[in-house]
Design a protein that fits this description.
With 172 residues, this protein is mainly alpha-helical. The chain has a domain at 30-116. It contains seven helices and two strands, in the order ααααααββα. Strands 1-2 form a two-stranded antiparallel ribbon. Strand 1 (132-134) and strand 2 (140-142) form a beta hairpin. Helix 1 (2-30) runs antiparallel to helix 4. The longest helix has 29 residues, at 2-30. It is elongated, with a radius of gyration of 17 Å.
């Protein structure tokens, strides 16, 4: 179960960051201005942050498996549909939907870990995602992995295809 949660967290981070990796290509192809790109890059966090409270309420009142499944479905459909977009407004709507879908993730993860692990065992399952390590330079970063690994992997995945192919919808 912990492996599935870690895999889900990884997908979560990749999905929220894929637009920033594809931004230079996306900007040219869709004719998006720098200010519109800024709105797109921040819009995910508008709904993500706002819906965290609602997600916590949902997790407390409904089966956590169903809440996570609906959220995962929403964020997967928003990510997959990104490759079909031809304009700013549609892309903005998909980024907002992505934030709504991903907002259920951490409340669900916390509820699942609390239900399946005794209090003294909860540190280990949370460790792959939330532990803090200090690098040689003294910088703190989550999970012992620097965020640049995601950017590097995303950049490499863009090289043979266009930006939309990385959303899984079409080849370049």
């Amino acid at each position: 179960m912990v492996i599935l949660l870690v895999l889900s967290v990884s997908i979560n981070y990749i999905d929220r960051g894929n637009l920033s990796i594809a931004a230079p290509l996306l900007k040219d192809e869709l004719g998006i201005s720098a200010s519109q790109l800024g709105i797109l890059l921040s819009s995910f966090f508008w709904t993500y942050a706002a819906c965290q409270i609602l997600a916590g309420w949902l997790v407390d009142r409904f089966a956590v498996n169903w809440v996570l499944a609906v959220g995962f479905f929403l964020w997967s459909m928003a990510t997959a549909s990104t490759g079909l977009v031809h304009g700013f407004a549609t892309l903005l709507c998909l980024r907002l939907l992505l934030g709504i879908g991903e907002s259920v993730a951490y409340p669900c993860y916390s509820k699942i870990l609390a239900a399946h692990f005794h209090e003294h065992q909860r540190g280990l399952p949370k460790c792959p995602d939330r532990r803090r390590h200090q690098s040689r330079t003294g910088d703190w970063h989550a999970g012992g992995r620097h965020p640049s690994w995601r950017a590097s992997a995303g950049g490499r995945s863009l090289s043979p295809w266009d930006w939309a192919a990385c959303s899984g919808c079409r080849a370049g």
